[in-house]
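User: Second chain of the day. Same drill as before.
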Amino acid sequence: MIPGSDEVLFVPLGGTGEIGMNFNLYGHDGAWMIVDCGVTFGDPLYPGVDVMTADPTFIEDRRDKLAGLLVTHAHEDHVGAVAHLWPRLKCPVYATAFTLAVLRRKLEEAGLAGKVPLHEIPLGGDVSIGPFDLTLVTLTHSIPEPNGLIIETGVGTIFHTGDWKLDPDPLVGDTTDEAALRAVGDAGVLAMIGDSTNATVEGAAGSEADVRDSLQELVGSFEARVAFACFASNIARVQTVAEVAHAHGRAVGLVGRSLWRMTEAARATGYLRDLPPFVREDEAMLLPRDKVALICTGSQGEPRAALSRIARDDHQNITLDGGDTVIFSSRIIPGNEVPIGRLQNQLTSMGVNVITEKDHFVHVSGHPARAELRQMYQWIRPAIAVPVHGEAHHLRAHAELARECQVPHVPVIGNGDVLRLHPDGPEISGQVQTGRLAVDGRDLIRLDDSNLRERNHMLWNGAATLTIVIDRKGRVVTEPQLSAQGVLDDTDEDY
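Assistant: Same format as last time:
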């Protein structure tokens, strides 16, 4: 399959019809470009598999035509697979400063430091990748430097939104570059490839500044320890929590390796510099209970993340006592309802107060709700709208909204579909190989691999030794895992 000079091919290998694992291909004039290369959570049907990536076989087989990989921002579902898949892709990688700071740490851990050609693009900057001329557009999200992409081709202009929302006061980073969005819309846009995560939600996502004001009031009502569960990559929320904690005379301790890595990358690129230093875990436990706030990894109930280890009383440094409070300043990613519920029950049984977004205003999403989507369509006015980044019902809801906004062509596609973008209209012209690979240490294993299948079969049919972890109070705290295969992970990374 060689993309022609009279067409643009859009081929999602991950992230369309699901949340996470974003991996998008653009083909034009004989060349290919990747936009984003992320991971997703493991599947309960595959015990011991915590992380999965998209299967890159289609583009790996065309590596000689691959011009480069551009990462829109540093969330795990957009950048987390680069270190795993780059040995198969071997192409230049492009991103802004903060995203590269995060990526360099991942490449170093993977033994790829200095081997991957990395190219920094300034905010709002331009770059050419093969036949694609790109301009970055600053947006707002829950992490520094989220970028939309204006992709100029010989066929027309494509606008790839990446992850975004409209936040007039994001606390971290610049506000959305409305002038650039209006300008590209006025110039004419062939197709917009757009975020669908909150397409079923009316209104707007809300501002990070509003969360800060709400947490300011909430935290002032507590006299014991307060711990926050959020994604390590949500630098805006880290800023919010730190500002609130310091306003109440509390030092801020970070609990989890990924939090330290993310905040170090943020400080190195100019963010979070107005905050006092964070305290280490051992230092945090020496402070009076009313003088400390903890930020913990593990908001999705990941069994080896910091908060789950605290809840089962096996964290080497941190303990929580009755009367302490844990605030889940995050949303539930679809599929994680069971582990999150288990974690919250464990904390409650310890006498810890658990607060979620159902109890108080403690979180705003980083993705656009329907009012924001309508505003974007008013600015961009594409001839074609392609919903991505969402499950099937999100894509359908986004498609219906785009039609309401008078977009002439709104194809709903899935991973592996080859969508031909052309001024005459879009057309699904074929399908390519897609799927998932399990990350097993530094190896990648297809889900239909015989060894993985056998391991799965042995577990579910009771033909292998199982390990059940019991905490010090006699409670079962983890799902059975196949100990004979050595699948237990020793990291507290969260995704």
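The longest helix spans residues 97-109.

User: Great, on to the next one.
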